[in-house]
Amino acid sequence: MKRKTKEINSTARPPAPAQQGIVLKFTEEQEEDLRKLALVDHHKDPAEWAKKHILQLIADRKREIL
Fold it and tell me: Is the pTM of this model over 0.85?
């Protein structure tokens, strides 16, 4: 008796959907300031540093409102 098996086309993961979010635009001077602040806090990526601090500001304000 033969086993029926499914034919698998691909085992690769499907591509992740593009993340949508807020896009912030900075001047060159502001970007340089962000890089310096991130370095002082030992972060390699200024974008991650900025995201962390923006989220902290949001959390603080939320606590003040509630």
Answer: no
- Cβ–Cβ < 8 Å for 38, 45: yes
- Count of residues for the chain? 66
Question: Would you call 22 helix, strand, or coil by DSSP?
Answer: coil
Closest CA to 33 of 51, 46, 45: 46
User: Dihedral, CA atoms, 49, 55, 60, 62, nearest 10 degrees?
Assistant: 170
pLDDT tens for residues 3-56? Answer: 777 776 767 777 777 777 888 899 999 999 999 999 999 988 998 899 999 999
Question: What spatial distance separates the first Cα and last Cα of the chain, rounded to whole Å?
Answer: 68
| Separation between Cα atoms, residue 12 and residue 66, nearest integer Å | 46
